[in-house]
Amino acid sequence: MHHQLRTLSKENADGVAKHLVMVAAYLAADELDAALAHAETAVRRAGRVPAAREALGMVAYRRGDFGRALTEFRTVRRLGGSHHLLPLMVDCERGLGRHERALDLAASPDVRHLEESDRVELAIVVAGVRRDLDQTEAALLALQIPQLKKAVGPYRLHYAYGDTLLALGRGEEARDWFVRAAAADLDGETDAAERVEEIDGVVLTESAESAEPSESADAEVTDG
C-alpha cells in the first residue's frame, strides 16, 4: 500500500493511509457504515490509488452492494494490473444474478496469474455458482483442484467439498471432508465440527440436572 501512496503529497499520503487503516479496523468490527465513510474519503483524496479503490470495493462487497463493488474492483484491476480480486469479481457477478457472466469471467485467461489461495477462493465461488444453477455435479468438479489433495490447510475448500457431497447424498464421504476442515479450522470460521455431529446423528440437549422444572411438571404434584 505504501508504495502506491508515493504519488501523493506526504500530508495527503499520511491522511489516506490513516483512513485505510480505519477501513480495515471497522471491517473487522463489522461496522460497515463507518468503514464506508472512511473508504469514500480515501477515494476522494486518492482516486487513482488502487489500495483506496480496493478498500471501497471491499466495503461495498461486504454491504452486498455488488454492482458498486464490481465497479471498484474493475478499477483496481485497470489501475494496478493485478488479478487477485478476480474471485470477488466472479462472486459479484453471482450476487447480481449474472451466473453465465460469472462463469465466463472465472474461465478467463487471467486465472493463470492467481496465487494459490486465490485459486482456492475462485473454485469455491464457481462451485457456488454451479449450485445456484442446480448443477451440483458440476459444482463438485469445480472443487477438484490440486489444492483439494492437501491434507492440511485449505479448510474452506474441504468444507465446500464436503457440503457439496452432502448435497449429492454422499454423507459418509462428506463426513471425511468435514473432519478434515474441522481439524484445520482452528479459529472456528466454519461449522465443520457441527456438521460432523449432524451426520453422526448427535443432538445436543440440555442435561436433566440443568433443566428448569416446567409449570406442567409442578401441576402434576399431588398430595400424598
- Put simply, the count of helices is 12
Supply the helix-strand structural class.
mainly alpha
Shape category: elongated
Integer average pLDDT? 90
CATH topology tier name of the domain at 1-82: Serine Threonine Protein Phosphatase 5, Tetratricopeptide repeat
CATH superfamily of the domain at 1-82: Tetratricopeptide repeat domain
Report the end-to-end length measured between terminal Cα atoms. 79 Å
Strand content: under 5%
Which residue ranges are poorly predicted, with pLDDT under 50 across at least 5 consecutive positions? 205-210, 216-224
CATH architecture of the domain at 1-82: Alpha Horseshoe
Helix coverage percent: 55-70%
Task: Give the biggest sheet.
Answer: none
Q: Write the H/E string, N to C.
A: HHHHHHHHHHHH
CATH class of the domain at 1-82: Mainly Alpha
Radius of gyration: 23 Å
Task: Please provide the count of β strands.
Answer: 0
State the gist of this model.
The chain is mostly helical and about 220 residues long. Helix content is about 65%, strand content about 0%. Residues about 205-210 and about 215-224 have low confidence and may be disordered.
Structure in words:
Helix content is 64%, strand content 0%. With 224 residues, the chain is mainly alpha-helical. It contains 12 helices and no strands. It has a domain at 1-82: Alpha Horseshoe (Serine Threonine Protein Phosphatase 5, Tetratricopeptide repeat).
